[in-house]
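We close this part of the discussion by returning to an individual protein. The sequence in question and its C-alpha cells are set out directly beneath this paragraph:
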Amino acid sequence: MTVDLKTPVVVGIGVATQREDDPLRAREPLDLMLDAARRAASDTGSDGARVLAGVDRIAVPKGRWRYQNPASELARAIGAKQAVTVLASVGVLQQTLLGDVCQRIAEGEIGSALVVGGDAGYRILRSKIHGVPLTERQQDDVPDETFSPLDELRHPAELRAGMKMPVGLYAIIESAYRKQKGWSVDAHRDRLAAMYSRFSEIAAQNPAAWKRAPVAPDAIRNASERNPMQAFPYTKLHCSTWNVDQAGALLFCSASKAEALGIPRTQWIYPVASTESNHMVQVSARTDLAGCPGAGIAGRAALDAADLRASDVELIDLYTCFPIAVETYAAALGLPVTRDLTVTGAMPFAGGPYNNYVLQATCRMVDLLRQGQGRYGLVSSVSGILTKQGFGLWSTQPGPKGFVLEDVTAVVAREVRTKEILEESRSDGVVAGYTVLYGPSQTPRGVVVADIDGGRAVAHTEDRALVAQMESIEFCGAKIRLRDAGTFAMAT
C-alpha cells in the first residue's frame, strides 16, 4: 500500500499506572508521564531512544500538579533538545492536542510529536488520609505555546446555588433529557445502572483499568456507604474516578519519518479525522437543556472524512465523565446505548485521570485496532460541562481524504439557542431541569433551573420534604415560585 510521505501515523502508545498507598513512596505525576513516554517509544518496535530524541513537539494537558511546563522537563529527560513545548489549560479539549500535532505533521511543519499527560489523584487522596504534605519538583520555565479556553464555564447564579462541581450541572441536564424522553424516574435510574454495569464488565477485560471487577446494576443505582449519592440520580459509581495515578502517551510521526526510523507498519495506526466545537454556553442559559447539537455536528464531520455512518464504526469510546455525556453523544450519532460504547470500561471503572482520559482511551483504541478488532475506532471528547465536543477517528488504513482537521464551532453556534439568566426575578416559573446535591457535611440541597419571565432562573431549597419529593417524582415541569436569596418553593 502506497502512503503519502506526510501522512501522520501513531507509531507508539504507552500507559503508566501506580497504586502506592504510602504517599511518601508514590512517584509524582511527571515521573508517570515519563514512564508512559518511554513505553510509547519502546512500543514502536524501533530504537526507542532515537525515536524520542527526534521528537519535534511535546504537548501536555494540564493536570492537578503545579508544574509550569512539564513538556520541557520531559524534553530534557528524553534528549529532545529541539522540541517545542506546549501546555493546554483545563477547558481545552484533549482532542485538540491530538488534532494539532497530526495537522502539523500533515502540513510538513514537523516530523514527529509526543502527546503525553497524567495525574496522580490517588497519591493526593492518600496524602490527605495520612495528613502528609506532598512535594513536587520545581518546574518553573514557560511553555513555548499555551492553549487556553476563552470563556468561564459557570454562571454566577449557578455557583451561588451550590454548583461548584460539575456533577450537579450534568445531573440537571440528565433530568431534562429524561423528561424529554418520557421515562419515569425509576425506569431511567434502572437504565443508567444497566448501562454502567456493562461498562464495568468491559473494564474487567482492560489490563490498564483501575478497577477490574464487574459491578451489579443495583450496586450502581442505589446509594450506599461505599457508593454515596453525589447529585441525584448520580451515585459515585456514575461519576468519573479521578483519584487514580495514571498517565498516557502517544507518539506520532509522518509516514516518511516512521519509515526512516525503521518502525514497522504493523505498529502504524492512522488518524483519519479530528473534529471539534468550542462554542460555549453556560448550562442554565441553554434553551434546549437536554440537547447537545455540537455532538452531532462534530461527530458527523469526523465520520464524513471516511464516508462512514456511526454504525459502520466497530469500536466506540464515548466520554464517560457522567451518564448524560454518553446518552447525548450516542443519540446525536444515532447509536443505541445497548451497544458497547466504551473500549476502556469507562471513567468510573477504568479510571478518569484529571484532564487526561482521552489520551488513555486513545491508547486503548490504538491497541485494539492493532489487534484486528476493527478497521475504525471513534473516540469522543467533552469539556466545558458538555459545551465543547470533539472526536478523533482512527483506522488501520489511511483516510480516503488524507487527514482531516475541522473546527465546526461556527456551525454549532448557529444552531444553539440561548435564554437570559435572570438573577432578581420573584415570579412563578416551570422547572426545566433539577437535581439534589449531596456532600459529606452538607444538608441535601435541591437545585432547579426554571423557565421564568421569558428567561431562566437558578434557585435552591433545603426543605427536606421538598427535596424528598424531587427524588421521588418527575420534578421537571413542576411550577415553582422564586423567593429571596435565590431560594424557591412550590407555587400555590
About this structure: Residues 76 and 428 are 62 Å apart (CA to CA). The chain has two domains: 8-152+241-415, 428-490.
